[in-house]
Design a protein that fits this description.
alpha/beta
């Protein structure tokens, strides 16, 4: 979790740091007998039962599997971006917009995610500048109409972010016009990268059905194309991408897998 302060999770009216929330969830799971292996699954085999999950040279078998691998934000790939994450660089305006009241902010992108982020920021920030590498947006018409009508939002067209400026926090961005190669500097207090998310599902290709973007296809809330394999969280959700919706999805998958195991005792 890249988010620092989490202010919209139920039960924490004063907010909580993202890592602390994760630690509390982990400890609660351990309390009820969960065993946690802090490694990545390298391959799976859902073609026969018991299902097989490989973690390097370790092999696990299971009668039911819940996939909760999440999704990763797409980044620009700049060294300055990585250095200033959580110091003014974010990939979640819904999460972090309240930390920039009356500030100047930049949103990078031109799709629905970028415009949704821009609108979320207008509730707090003084200025929102959308930087887009093309001369027109890819977002839905209704979102474009809302953004164009908002006086807080301005645009820098045909441009990309070459560097995020600042030592200990974001102070500006260096931009390049892709048509003229002209370089400019734009002062800002925050940069929100909104160029999409990639579900962490590569290891499941060929094992369960995925949609064209790699999100897990489910029916009846959490059931995948393989009976006994369930999914939960952001790896099946391209819309909400919130901790609370992922937690709710996880609860559904746990209940569904428990019922499946009861109905298939062997």
């Amino acid at each position: 979790m890249l988010t620092g302060e989490v202010e919209n999770y139920p039960g924490f009216p004063d907010g909580i740091q993202g890592p602390e929330l994760m630690s509390k969830m982990r400890n609660q799971a351990l309390k009820f007998g969960a065993k946690i292996l802090s490694e990545d699954a390298t391959s799976v085999d859902f073609s026969s039962r018991p299902f097989k999950v490989n973690v390097g040279d370790k092999k696990f078998e299971a009668r039911a599997v819940i996939i909760a691998t999440g999704a990763s934000a797409k980044w620009l790939g700049l060294p300055s971006e990585a250095r200033l994450r959580a110091r003014g660089v974010s990939a979640c305006a819904t999460c972090d917009a309240p930390f920039f009241p009356d500030k100047k902010t930049v949103v990078v992108g031109g799709g629905d995610t970028a415009l949704d982020d821009a609108l979320a920021l207008t509730k707090y920030a003084r200025e929102v500048t959308i930087v887009h590498r093309r001369d027109q947006l890819r977002a839905s018409k209704i979102l474009q109409e809302r953004v164009f009508a908002n006086k807080k939002v301005t645009f820098v067209w045909d441009s990309v972010v070459e560097e995020i400026l600042g030592k200990d926090r974001v102070e500006g961005v260096k931009l390049k016009n892709v048509k003229t190669d002209e370089a400019t500097t734009l002062p800002t207090d925050a940069v929100f990268v909104a160029i999409g998310h990639k579900p962490n599902t590569d290891v499941f290709k060929g094992q369960i059905d995925l949609d064209e973007k790699g999100y897990i296809s489910v029916h009846d809330e959490t059931k995948t194309s393989v009976e006994g394999v369930f999914a939960a969280g952001d790896n099946l959700d391209p819309v909400y991408k919130q901790a609370v919706t992922a937690a709710a999805s996880g609860c559904k998958a746990a209940l569904d897998s428990e019922k499946y195991l009861q109905e298939h005792p062997i």
